[in-house]
Sequence to fold (324 residues):
Amino acid sequence: MSLRERLGLEHPIVGAGLGGGLSRADLTVAIAQAGGLGQLGLMPPQMLRAELAAHRARSSRPVALNLLLPFTRRAHWEVAREADAVLTFWGTPRRVTGGIWVHQCGSEDEARAAVDAGADGVIVQGVEAGGHVRGTTPGLELLERTQRALGAECPIWLAGGVAERGDVEVALAAGADAVVVGTRFLLSEESHAHPEYKRRLLGAPDTILTELFGAGWPARHRVVPNAATERWLRGDGTVPGWVRALHRATAPALSRMPVSMIQRAAHSQRPGTPLLGPAAATAGDPASLVDAGPLYAGQCVARIGDLRPAGALVRDLAGATADV
Ligand SMILES: Cc1cc2nc3c(=O)[nH]c(=O)nc-3n(C[C@H](O)[C@H](O)[C@H](O)COP(=O)(O)O)c2cc1C
Fold:
């Protein structure tokens, strides 16, 4: 049975876990009610529990919880046990809950490790994806390689570059069980991104794959340019070596900070500070974070020109015409 069937999804459309408070119950409910699967992104455990309860209060349909492994604490796993599925990202894949578990991977080797660890399926992430980028090759290429490595039995979801119905059709025709959609749902009415963050993304012509916002999490991420990237990226787009060294040196201490503290620290971040962290601007954050923090977005941002209700997006992506 496909993962999609096990979860009882009407449509093969999964909203990405947009961490740090970008994807909350408003978004997961809208996606679920239209027949897709939403993910609550990583938040402080109490907030995560409250958002899960808010989803349950407003929808009887499934919801997934996304855990970024380097920042996941025991209290997060306790909340995760109550979700319908747990989707993990970054770090050694490991099963912690008894329910449906899917790990997002950037290579076929990582996908194999996840399956060996007991994953019910994998997400293959292409290099075109927004947010933190594990993939190094285009998503469709990785999908094919992972299918060859794991065989037809393993359900594979494709992440990266899915913004329109045609993208979904191509992914399903290539054998994906479902697609995972980040940037398109970030640009929905229900995502909790700061309004100015959304405005900057609409019509942004290009993205940069960088390590600039690497304080506490020195890893590659895809963003739209802002004052901080203008200030720090060299002519060839790379981050100065001493900034990367500073990130690496401070990572062991900073990555142990609770998510709530990482978010608070971001409020005092300025584009001119070299120690730039991974928290993105959510509604309610100071507008200064739009230029001092990461404007995560995938390459498909160039094809997105409007903010839309998430339910309508699910239906359009799925090629459905009426409410389910
Ligand atoms: C704003 C933003 C935040 C993200 N945060 C997370 C996260 O917390 N956990 C995660 O597994 N993936 C995260 N991702 C990556 C997505 O899971 C997914 O790989 C990506 O969005 C797919 O590419 P797309 O943006 O082109 O749809 C994020 C992506 C974006 C755009």
Summary: The chain has a mean pLDDT of 94. The longest strand covers residues 63-68.
